[in-house]
Amino acid sequence: MAHAAAHTKETYLSTLYHRLAAHLRKKRVIVAVAHAIVVSAFHMLSRNESYDDLGADYFDTRRQTYLVDRLMQRLEHLGYRVRLELVPTT
Questions:
Q1: How many independent structural domains does the chain possess?
Q2: Is residue 41 part of a domain?
């Protein structure tokens, strides 16, 4: 079940799987995804709530400033000068 959930598209569990798979062995990552599913199920049952997926961009929005700084440093390391402007969302 965790393997199937990890290979869905644009979900929190698939993003979690791919983030962890970059650093850990695949079987260990599947266990971590299964743990996340069990924790979610526990909270859903104890609070009598339905499942609300956090989305594929959860980790990016959570650490947005860190992500922007890291990507700017990578571009500057490649020899580019970067100037950012915040685009208003509509």
A1: 1
A2: yes
pTM: 0.67
CA distance 74 to 36: 31
Residues 17-50 pLDDT 10s:
998 999 999 899 999 999 999 999 999 999 999 9
Has residue 67 been placed in a domain?
no
Look-up of token digits 């915040």: 86
- Domain region containing 19: 2-62
**What is the CA angle 7-11-17, rounded to 5?**
50
Q: Give one DSSP letter per residue of the chain, joined into a string.
A: -HHHHHTSSSSHHHHHHHHHHTTS-HHHHHHHHHHHHHHHHHHHHHHT-------TTHHHHHTHHHHHHHHHHHHHHTT------PPPP-
